[in-house]
Every structure is written in C-alpha cells, then in structure tokens.
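Re: that chain you flagged

S.,

Sorry for the slow reply, it's been a week of failed gels. I finally had a moment to sit down with the sequence you sent. For the record, here it is as I used it:
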Amino acid sequence: MKNLIKILFAGAVLISCNNQSNPTTDLGKLMAERDQLKASKDSIGLLLAELETQISALDTTKKLSLVTLKESEQKRFEHFFKVYGTVQTDNMAMINAETQGKIESIWIEEGTKVSKGQKLAQINADVIRRSIAELENRLELAQTVFERQERLWNQNIGSEIQYLQAKNDRDAIKKSLQTAQEQLAITTITAPFNGVIDEVFPKEGEYTAPGAPFFRLVNLEKVYIKADISENYLGKIKEGDSVIVEVPNVKDATFQTSISRIGDFINPDNRTFKIKLELKNTSNILKPNMLAEISIRDYQNDSAVVIPENLILQGAQNEYFVYTLNTTSENTGVAQKAQLEIGKSYNNEVEILKGLPANTMVIDKGARSIQNGEVVEITTTQEL
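Prediction finished late last night. Pasting the structure tokens below so you have them in one place:
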C-alpha cells in the first residue's frame, strides 16, 4: 500500500512538473494529464476508505455511526387513487296501499323475512265481495238470456238487435266482474320480491287510502356502489378493473370487486363521470346510503424496483437520494450516495425509475446522520 501511495504521489508530482516546464502544452496533453489526475483521485479515495476502515478497527477512541440495512426489491408495483361513493340497492321498495278501506289484518312485523308473493296485510273488502256476488248472479242470468237468444238467432227467429243486446249485456257484466275481482286482489298486500320488512307504517284498525305507505321492504343480498370520478382519469380506468372497497364505519368491512360500469356522461357542474361497482352482501353489513371508500388502480408495473418511502432523503436542490453500502468487512462499510429518479408512491412504498438496481443494500436507520464516504458499522434495529 505504501508503494502504491508513493507511485501515485510521484505521478501527481511528475504531472505538476510537466505543466510547469511546458507552459505551451497542447490541449490533448492537458486532457490526458487531467484524466490521470482523476484516476489518481479515485485510487486515493479507495485507499483512504480502506485506511479509514483499518484505523477504525484499531482506534478504540473513535466510535463508528451505527446503521441498519434494507434491500431494494424488484416486484410488482401498483398505484391506487381513492374516491368516495354510496351504497345503493335496486331491491328496496316502499309498498303502498292501492285502495281505500279499514286495515283488517297485518300479518308480519318489522325484521320479518318474507318471500315474493307472500301476504303481508289485508284491507277490509266486504263491499267488494258483495259486489262480486251480485255481479256473478247477474252474469249467470245474462249468460242464460244470451244463450237462448243465440239459439233463436241461429234458427232465424227474433231480431238481430235482440241477439246483440243480450251479448252486450253479458260482456259488460263480465268486464264489471273482472274489475271487481281486481279490486278485491289489491286489498291483499303482498311482497313484490324476497327481502326483509324494514319498517311497518300503519296499525290494524286504521283507515288507509291509495298511495298511503304500508311497508318498507329491503333485500341487501346484492348491492352496488356509485361514485363520481374526475374526468382526468378517463382512459386510465376501464370496466373490469380491480378495486378495493372499504366502509369506514364498519369494522373489517373490506371488499375486493371490479368496475361493472363506467358512465358515458360528464357532469358539466363538477367535471366528473360515474362508475358502478356490484357487491355481494351475504352478511348484510352494507346498508343503503352508507359511505364507502374506493381504491382504484390507475398504474401498474410488473417489474419495478421498490423501496420503503422512509428510506428516501431529499437534498437542498430537491434531489432525492439514498445511501447504499459498500461493505469492507463483515460489520463495516462505506456509505455511498446514490441519486434517484423516483416514480409513483403508494402504501409507504416508492417506485425507483433510475439510480438504484434491485437487490441493493440501502442504509435505513442512521441514514440521516451520516455523510457520503463515511465508514459506518452495521447493526440491527434492536441495537439502535
């Protein structure tokens, strides 16, 4: 090592002497001498680093800075942005009365599971039933008259007017009977689909009228979320893209789903378009109008160099850098500054575009208190 230092020193002196004795040296010689000096500088830097390591090993009075290491990884990197939406369902209905009358019976309570077509309540229909009985008697007579008149007409007996009048009377009563039967049917309130009775509004014995609310029926097995997305993301997301849904007010309510529909209209008021996400809600923890946080992927790199965000330091000129470690022994090494070009960051990780290869040891703890070229000692987090 001493011989190498002497050679380097002698070379530097020789170059200096040549410059002094040849003031008219041409540009090519000057550039060659500059390159020699740079090579000498690099060699001296390595020698100094090695000497520092040896001195540190022998010098019991000087204590090296302690650092820990993290290894840069090459892996899949994804970036998500977040928006908020609301939970909705198409299977929620307000069941209203379609006729007037006294409420005779309510057969279910709030919270009851019901099936499509199941009877829920009965409005008194005595008047309609009596009307149906009367119409049935009139229809029987009108049918008899029509049949006799038809036989006579077929025998060319009687007038056509009598035949047509009998037919018209029978058909009119049939239509009246059909109307009365439809009115009777709507006095029984039934469930339009499977679900749970969320609320019962009237009480037995009260009078109701057409349009008056009876029940709120909800089926939450399938729900969907709608959200507004800034038009800046048009072209960055598409139907079928994976998303993560979290419901802040429900513990452990996280769902993995995909975008089922992207709207075709830009709202001119806020420059957004709508997306729809369909969810299975088998545990019924999602309720209509709940607020949901949606994480949507807008970037993906299947082979990115990634490091934790807290490892990156920022210089005075807004440059980003880390300290890598050039190991000189099992427990020591020289800190080397590596300037970075960074990409996107997400979930406390940063994508490195340039300046750091994969599987490089990066200084973690202690990086903020060291300098470029400083000899440091490798330790563990527990010791720090």
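What I noticed first: The longest strand covers residues 291-308.

Talk soon,
D.
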